[in-house]
Each structure stands twice: as structure tokens, then as C-alpha cells.
Amino acid sequence: MRILIVEDSDAVSKVLKHLIAQELDCDVDIAPDLATAITLLDVNQYFVVVADLNLPDAPNGEIVRLVLNSYHTTCIVLTGNLDSQQRKELLKLGIADYVLKENRYSYQYVVKLISRLKRNQQVKVLVADDSVVSRKFVRVLLEQHLFKVIEANDGAQALTVLKDQPDIQLLITDYNMPNVDGFELILRVREQFSRENLAIIGLSNDNDESLSARFIKNGANDFLQKPFVHEEFHCRVLNTLDSLDMIRSLWETANRDYLTQAFTRRYFFKKHQNEQQDNNVFSVALIDIDFFKKVNDTHGHDVGDQVLIEFAKRLEMAFGQHFTVARFGGEEFVVAFKGLDAEKTHTLMDKFRQQCANKVIDTSIGPITMTFSCGVATLRSETIDSVLHRADEYLYLAKGAGRNRVVSTC
Ligand SMILES: Nc1nc2c(ncn2[C@@H]2O[C@H](COP(=O)(O)OP(=O)(O)OP(=O)(O)O)[C@@H](O)[C@H]2O)c(=O)[nH]1
């Protein structure tokens, strides 16, 4: 990623370059005037151009039109002052945002914005609105911030799109729509997508003043009254996505093991405590690395950690896409095989055991071999604790029989 700062003040460009380089993994070029900017723009592909409106050889914001229209590059405007008319014109041109050079927080805002724009490239936003004009308007605003935009012309279509593309992170929905309106859409979406999975912003040009509260009570994160100004739209979208990121990060901290990134014991129980009622075939594999204490004692705790991290990675690669992989503590892991009986689970785990035993783990002190023992049990008319207890008994038998083996009822 490469950023261009076009700014005639040496002090400002140095501060910005320092902050950007510190926060973002990217190259930063500086142009003190329009002529240098053109030379650089001709040879480099920039992710974003941060441009001062008033340059020695272009005092009237000429750089902005050039960046947007000739180089089709995202532009953040930097300016000492801006009157209301200039502000409107710039926003109409399609800049990502403008920043007043007021204090160091202004520069931090630029960095935060670039970082957000970078992430936005991976963020899918669904716009549900029966008005084509309105949908296109929102699309243009979202694309200025580099989002991947998907459109739905009513609530029913939005539900289908969300089912097909569950990785959509933000739904922006109008209130008045045929078939399924905004409220009903949100209620139905929230049955499947929690707040850490999907954020929702409601829109309406209806003058009913209770709408915003009703949207939020129904499960939306925010609401915007039409017509809205560009900046308010961007601020609300960015705030909503920042909150979503924060909720996700808290969720990850609460549910993932810090060292290995496998799910925690707590998550495992929360997710699988009702397996019996769900009436599904359900097996668990309880896994314990063999002689792990020896790895720590011989090579040190750090190398032990590297082995745990790599082993968790292997488990995740082998089973994580379809099954829950959790670290129960220490060198003990569990995989929940929902839908598989003991025999199938045993076969899968035994194949994985052989692969692990035959593949060295590269650590900082060189390659290390490791094996594990495993107990497999299938849920009967019992609690999740009981099935784990039985898996533990089989694990104990596996250890007693010489380790590096899988034991189950089969
Ligand atoms: N490096 C590292 N070691 C850990 C961690 N958690 C637990 N351990 C170590 O894991 C080892 C577990 O040893 P034991 O329970 O005796 O089991 P073992 O040596 O694997 O022997 P068997 O299970 O009987 O094959 C202990 O030395 C713990 O200190 C961790 O997060 N990192």
C-alpha cells in the first residue's frame, strides 16, 4: 500500500508521514506542490492521496479534481479553513473526507480514516431500498469509502442475499418497502444474525418522529433521517462499523484462547451444552499431547508454546471449518464432531494422529516431533459433561496403552 501526501508545509507532511508510517504498514511519498504530485502520480499507484487545497502552484484546490478525475484515486482533503460553499463542492466532487488542520487530533483522524478505508475494501454492505435513485445515491457514498456494495430492491430480496452471503457486515435498510418493510426485515434478520455478526442502519424519509427509536428498539444499531448530508452518513457508517469491530474484538477475547487462538473451554460448553436436546449424533475427541512436560523441561517454555500454537493450527486446519476446536487447558484440546458417530470420529482422529506423528514441528531450536493420545466418545442420553467424562476415560486408556493412539468404543 502506498500513500501520497501533497502538502507544502514541511512540518505538516513530516508529522503526517510519521503518524501514517507508525500506524499503517505502507510506503509514504511527499509532494510539496502540484508539479511533483503529478510526476509521482504518473509512476505510482496510490491507495489514497492526502491533498492540501492550497498549494504554491495550485492555490484553488486543483489537485482534488486531478486526483479524482484523472487518476481515479481516493482523496482526503487537508485544509486550513473551509467555508460552507467550498465544503459542499468538495463533498459533491466525491472526496472521501476533509480534515481541518487544527491540531494533532486532525492528523490522527487522517490516519484512522486511511486505516478504515483499507479495511473497508473487505467489508460487504447490503443496501435494501425499493427506490433505485435512493439506492444508487447510497451506493455512490459507500463506494467513496471503498466498501463492497450489494443492492436489494426490497426486504424479501435482502433476506435472500443475506442467506447467500452471510459475510455481509452492514445492512442499510429503508423503512417503507413493499413485501417486507424495514422493521420486519430487521426483526427477521436479527433472528439469525447477532450484533457481533451484522450491524444495521435504518433509513427513512417518513416524518414520524418515533421512527428512529422504533428502528433501534427492533434491533438496528443506528438510524438516519433522509435527506442526510454526506458527512453525517459517513460518520454514522464509520461509527457503526467501529462499534462492530469493537464488539467482535471483545467477543474474540472472551471466546478464544490467547496463546493458540483455539476456542476456549467456556465457548465449547456454551456452544454445545444443548446437544442432547438437538437430537443430533454428536461425538467428542479429547486430545492430550504426549510427554509435553518433557518438551518444556528439555527445550524451555517458549518452545513448548510454539508446539502448542502449531498443534492448534493443525487441528484448526484439519477440523476447524466444520467442527469446534477448543483448548481445554494446558496441553489438552477437544474437538466437537457434530453429526459424526464414534466410528467416523475415530477414523478421522486416527488419520490426523498419523499425520501429526509423521510431520515435524519447526521451532526456534529446530524440528521437534510430537504425538498425542485421544479418547473418543459419542453422546447418549446424558449431559455434555458425561460424554466428556467418558472420552477422558478412553484418553486415560490410550495413555496407559503406550500413548500415540486413539481409543473409543469402536
Ligand atoms: N509451554 C507451555 N506449557 C504448558 C502450558 N500449559 C501447561 N503446560 C505444561 O504442560 C505440561 C503437562 O504435563 P503433564 O500433565 O505431566 O503431562 P505430559 O508431560 O504431557 O505427560 P502425559 O500427558 O502423561 O503424556 C506441564 O509441564 C505444564 O507446565 C502452556 O501454556 N505453555
UniProtKB/TrEMBL annotation:
It catalyses: 2 GTP = 3',3'-c-di-GMP + 2 diphosphate. GO terms for biological process: cell adhesion involved in single-species biofilm formation; negative regulation of bacterial-type flagellum-dependent cell motility; phosphorelay signal transduction system. Residues 2-116, 124-241 form the Response regulatory domain. GO terms for molecular function: diguanylate cyclase activity. One of its GO terms (cellular component) is plasma membrane. Residues 280-410 form the GGDEF domain. It is an enzyme of class 2 (transferase). It comes from Shewanella holmiensis. SUPFAM superfamilies: CheY-like, Nucleotide cyclase. Keywords: Phosphoprotein. Its cofactor is Mg(2+). The modification 4-aspartylphosphate is found at residues 52, 174. InterPro entries: CheY-like_superfamily, Diguanylate_Cyclase, GGDEF_dom, Nucleotide_cyclase, Rev_trsase/Diguanyl_cyclase, Sig_transdc_resp-reg_receiver. PANTHER family: DIGUANYLATE CYCLASE DGCM-RELATED, REGULATORY COMPONENTS OF SENSORY TRANSDUCTION SYSTEM. Its EC number is 2.7.7.65. Pfam families: GGDEF, Response_reg. This is diguanylate cyclase.
